[in-house]
Design a protein that fits this description.
This is DUF2567 domain-containing protein. Keywords: Membrane, Transmembrane, Transmembrane helix. The protein is mainly alpha-helical. Helix content is about 55%, strand content about 5%. It has a domain at about 30-45 and about 70-125 and about 145-170. It has helices at about 5-10, 20-45, 65, 70-95, 100-125, 130-135, 155-170, 185-190, and strands spanning about 50-55, 60, 140-145. A three-stranded antiparallel sheet has the order 2-1-3, covered by helices on one side. Helix 2 runs antiparallel to helix 4 (about 70-95), helix 2 packs parallel to helix 5 (about 100-125) and helix 4 runs parallel beside helix 7. About 20% of the residues are buried.
């Protein structure tokens, strides 16, 4: 004879598994991998404006070229928003048992992923502009360097990475509100089961 009612025993306990060091390392590796991929994508999607070298040795670009200079920052922000949200979602789904330190971990990892994307994209880009322009001959078209002209764009990465964590912690189900298996909810359920016979 069991003192635990059948309905309480059948109810599954929703517990968040503690996040071990392996899970944290895997999360960091995933985030850095996404940062590196974002750097590759950044270099691939940015349409860099170009300067045309004139016969007198000077270089000129169009008005459209001048406005396209900010395109690299815009793409970096867009990629940072996507990767940041993915990092935050994975962190909340897999590491929420860490508690409040999860926010710090997510911010640090998102900044590291953004810095890695910046480095990878710049390394894959055409390189520094001035040396390439100095070597160019008349009539050559020289693209500008792929660089982040507004370093504040890096803040998009951690900002959007913490959004899923903060929303999940404030709007999600509290662990204390969940009834563990074996704890009766009502007085009627707490009555012992008596078998006839």
């Amino acid at each position: 004879m069991s003192d635990v009612p059948a309905t309480a025993a059948a109810r599954p306990a929703h517990r968040v598994r503690p996040a071990g060091p392996v899970a944290v390392v895997a999360f960091v590796a995933l985030a850095l991998g996404l940062g590196a991929l974002a750097g590759v994508a950044w270099e691939a999607v940015v349409d860099l404006p170009t300067y045309t070298v004139g016969a007198d040795g000077g270089a000129a670009t169009s008005e459209r070229g001048l406005t396209a200079v900010v395109g690299s920052d815009a793409w970096f922000c867009l990629l940072g928003a996507v990767v940041g949200l993915l990092v935050g979602l994975v962190a909340w789904r897999r590491l929420r048992a860490l508690g409040w330190p999860l926010v710090l971990l997510v911010v640090v990892v998102a900044v590291a992923a953004g810095l890695l994307a910046w480095w990878v994209g710049t390394a894959l880009g055409p390189g520094e502009f001035n040396p390439r322009l100095a070597r160019a001959a008349a009539g050559d078209v020289v693209p500008v360097a792929l660089e982040l002209r507004a370093p504040a764009s890096l803040l998009v990465w951690p900002f959007l990475a913490v959004v899923p964590v903060l929303l999940g912690s404030s709007l999600g189900r509290e662990e204390d509100d969940e009834d563990p298996a074996g704890v009766p909810e009502t007085l009627e359920e707490s009555r012992p089961v008596v078998e006839n016979g």
